[in-house]
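Entry:
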Amino acid sequence: MEITPEQFSLIEPSLPVQRGNVRLENLQVINAILYVAEHGCKWRGLPKRFGNWHTIYTRMSRWAKAGVLDRLFEALQHHQLIRIKIEAVSLDSTIVKVHPDGTGALKKAARKRSANPAADGQPKFIWLPRMLDAPSRSP
C-alpha cells in the first residue's frame, strides 16, 4: 500500500511545509507509515528503501501530536486513496506496568500485631463476600 506522486499531490495541502535541510520527503514518510500500518511491523523493521526508521518515527510522532496525522488520514479517505476501519483495539498486558501493591506483593513495613488482639482495636476493614439473591425459579 504505497501512494504515487500523483496521489500525493491530492493530499499535500493537509501536510506541513517542509523547511530547512530535509533528507526525507513527506511522500517517503507517508509510504513508510502506511507500510508499518499494513504489515504491522516494528519501526526498526522498516525496509532500508524508506530511509532511517528513527527519522520516520520522529516525524510521525510530531505529526500525531500536532494533529497532522488525523488530517492526513481524513484526506486519504476523502480522496479514496485508502480505506481504513478500526474494529478492535488490543493492548498487550506485558507492557503495562503495575504498582507492586497492585500485584498482591507483601508490603515492606507490615504492621505488627500485639500479643493482645483486644488492645489492637477493631480491624480497619473487613472483607465479607456477599451472596447475591438466588434467582427465582419460574414454573
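The chain has five helices and no strands.
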